[in-house]
């Protein structure tokens, strides 16, 4: 089975750095819900290298700053599922950044 995240073209990215890219979530649970996805195909958070972990923190902060400016959320959920029993359904690392509003 082909990985749907590996097939996303760069023109769909709203933000990117060396190791990650950001897209709007296809099924958002709130306005501006985004996914941060690893460019390298790996299963979950626990396979990230030290360099990728640093890069993930950087792009997460960059995305938050952009969302704060554009949408002014009052809070955020950051979510990832690691493993089938944890609810993971796409086995390519991704972090949900879900803005929340009063």
Brief account:
With 102 residues, this protein is an alpha+beta fold. The protein is built from 1 helix and 5 strands, in the order βββαββ. It starts with 14 loop residues before the first strand and ends with a strand.
Gross morphology is globular
Examine the coordinates and then state which fold CATH places here, giving the name of the CATH topology. HIT family, subunit A
How would you state the average pLDDT, rounded? Answer: 97
Count of β-strands: 5
At CATH's second level, what is the architecture? Answer: 2-Layer Sandwich
User: What count of structural domains?
Assistant: 1
Order of helices and strands: EEEHEE
Low-confidence stretches: none
Proportion of residues in helical segments = 10-25%
Name the CATH superfamily classification.
HIT-like
What's the main sheet like?
A: 5 strands, antiparallel
* Beta-strand percent range: 15-25%
Class of secondary structure makeup = alpha+beta
Distance between the termini: 40 Å
For this structure, what is the CATH class?
A: Alpha Beta
The radius of gyration over CA amounts to: 13 Å
Count of helical regions: 1
Can you walk through the features of this model?
It is a single chain. With 102 residues, the protein is of the alpha+beta class. The model has no long low-confidence stretch (mean pLDDT 97). The protein is globular, with a radius of gyration of 13 Å. A 5-stranded antiparallel sheet has the order 1-2-3-5-4, covered by helices on one side. It has one domain: 2-Layer Sandwich (HIT family, subunit A). It is 22% helix and 24% strand. It has 1 helix and 5 strands; from the N terminus they run βββαββ. The longest helix is centred in the middle third of the chain and has 22 residues, at 50-71. A hairpin with a 3-residue loop joins β1 (15-16) and β2 (20-24). The protein has one helix at 50-71; strands at 15-16, 20-24, 34-38, 75-79, 94-100.
